[in-house]
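Q: I'm writing up a methods section and want to include an example of the input and output format. Could you take the sequence below and give the corresponding predicted structure tokens, formatted cleanly so I can copy it straight into the document?
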Amino acid sequence: MISIALAGKPNAGKSTFYEAATDAEVDVGNYPFTTIDPNRGVAHVRTECPCLARDERCGSDHCSDGKRYVPVELLDVAGLVPGAHEGRGLGNQFLDALTDADVILQVVDAAGETNAEGEPVEVGDYDPVEEVDFVESEMDQWLAGIVDRNWESVVRKGRSPDFDIDEALVDMLTGFGATEHDVTYVLRAMEYPADPGSWDDDDRAELARRVRERTKPIVVVANKADIAPEDNVERLRETDKPVVPTTADGELALQRAAAAGAIDYDTGDEAFEVRGDLSDSQAAGLERIGEVMTQYDGTGVQTALNTAVYDLLDRITVYPVESETHWTDGQGRMLPDAHLLARGSGPQDLAYAVHTDIGEGYLHAVDARSDRRIGEGHELAEGDVVKVVSTAN
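A: Here is the clean output for your methods example:
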């Protein structure tokens, strides 16, 4: 399962975002380090379900009238403060928790009501643009420190006649969550000395930065957009990072109103419809949320998750079935499963995603939309429905 980590300074709204994205109650408070132990839960990315091409909806627990929600892991860890890479605050604990994350959502207080340390100030008193590069910088310095501390072992290995620097660096960096492919990709793009004893601090820092960019891409969540000065949000969007204006509080309010039957709303919708009677205060609150949704095409919570998975990680959603005619599994359930695969994946990659034995016994696949057999070199696309034929079926 794809793993997304929430990062940012204390009181930026990470725990509120986590609660809105996972429907899990967590400790939310206006003080540093509300989150001590990481919260780990299941969120969902949203896409269009293939059942919309059929005469009836699939009925999956993860489909709401053609809106398909695909599970991903969401990790909420302790707030980050300046100097975290040196152990300040809960820095080491925070950064270690990010090791296995595939992508990071950096939650920024767009309202500017918390300072660099995460302490409360008046709305607009702190410039949120100042923290856009904050998490990136802390992670780069943290990883550079890991590289520095392990470099002497690489130098010792370099004295061996059969030494291969690429292999040595792969061994060191895979512990950070990088794959062999990731490290090889980074090294191909660098110019570096073959002798590890000739590397300097700048060489090692560049290696750390490139590996972090490759393995931990970042989406900036401009949270509290509902109370933020509009200029703050616009300046955040002008930075060189992907930025999603968000109101996690607004998303939570909509979910609770929908659960109470007051509105019609599915997470990720760009608008909601009032169904029941509202008090004046409820109506005013929902009106304000509606204005923000109109301005930013929704609350931003679902958009941030989708941006991380479908844009930065470049994943596609593919649906394995046993019946290419009915799009069902062996129990007659229509489109019960969805897999997030890397763009460029083929049918055998899907087979392995379903189960290792299915992949190893792969024979061929059928595109259920066209009812045609597809070859191993066929590239799957978003929304494909595929029957995999394997000796393990």
